[in-house]
Fold this protein.
Amino acid sequence: MSERYVIAVDLGAESGRVMRAGFDGQRIEMTEVHRFPNKPVYVRDTLYWNILDLWQNIKDGIEKAADGYEIASIGLDTWGVDVGMLDSTGKMLSIPVHYRDERTEGAMDWVFERVPRREVYERTGIQFIQLNGLYQVASLTRDGSSLFDAAHTIFTIADLFNYMLTGTAAAEFTMASTWQAVDPRTRDWDRELLAKVGVPVERMAPIVQPGTRLGEYEGIPVIASVCHDTGAAVVGVPATNKNYAYLSSGTWSLLGLELDHAVINDAAYEANLTNEGGYGGTFRFLRNIMGMWLVQQCRAIWAEEGRAYSYDDLVRISEEAEPFQAVIDPDDDSFFRSENMPQQIRDYLARTGQTAPDTDGGLVRTIYESLALKYSLVMKHLVDVSGQPVEQLHIIGGGSRNKLVCQMAANATGVPVVAGPAEATALGNAVVQFITYGDLANLDEARQMLAKSIDTTTYQPQNVAAWNEQAQRLSKIIG
């Protein structure tokens, strides 16, 4: 085949990028043409996504990527859970509010007063986190917002960007599933659940599957690729067998298995495991873990204090620090929002009877080690509940470049870690477009191609017994 080119727009919580992907039948070549920060904005105590700045960067990136190339299509992915709305004229009704905004405080309990917690899980199979779309829309009802009165279309933030590109209002399945408001059996909105929390269900955009053509932008077809960034990243895993786990490592760490069915039972409920929609009829049976958010926020505070570290610097000073000084639960509620993350970690350590490291490197090492230990605990839950063994852990996303954390993850989980690709999300986004065009027959063929053509690094477990002791230490602290 002659080489085909597509554009992958990948928006993460910290930054966005526009990539041009070329496929010649043997390998995919990814070229980053535009990268930009994603900086939310506070307006009168509400935290908003800077949606217009992101939109301008998307347009600029597409223009750069298409310059001199014949582009077959565009696909877009974003973080999950957030809400977009249109009015009756098709105009954006409000600026999407950030999932870390305080409006969801107490919204989970408010929902459970109307729909029991166990019933919500049985209906959706989704992990309980207060940032989920269900609690975002429920908070609007609870707080008496008039947005629903004016809303004509309700969908996710990725769908909003796709609408801005094409004028087509549709909800892509993998994104919609992150809301905790989709029935995994019917793969459609759970309208009864949404109605019970006051959402006008007739205004929910229809759900479409990954690979659906939505329309055109500047004459270029736009495909609803796997629009949830983790779903796209999983497509980009270069795995050649089924007995693997994946860790999409970035602001969030998402650790899971790829299954052909949702797992909704008492054990999954007790372990707070999630069943998010995947590509090709699959489900991502996983757990959201706080991830590099903790490091990002420490780095920001230290920069304000005059100690500006690159991410490579943080790895270096962490390597120099004494191991296992302390452990934290990265998912403790006190870390969800950041005011002064280093101090928040010290406060947590004091509450749990531990002595905080007295250097920045020691604090970063505590975060890295604790993330790896949390991976080991979550992986055990995933294996026990699903019955699927794990012989290998694939770390993808930006965190795959962190050699120290990759080695720690191998040590803590006791299985080999295969790190890479770093740009798995944009790669998976592009892969779905190539499958849609028939350049690749299916996901299995795509992964065989990726395994042959993507550079990865393998880390073998070391000092496993000591890491098992630390995992038990963390388990006791979590309780």
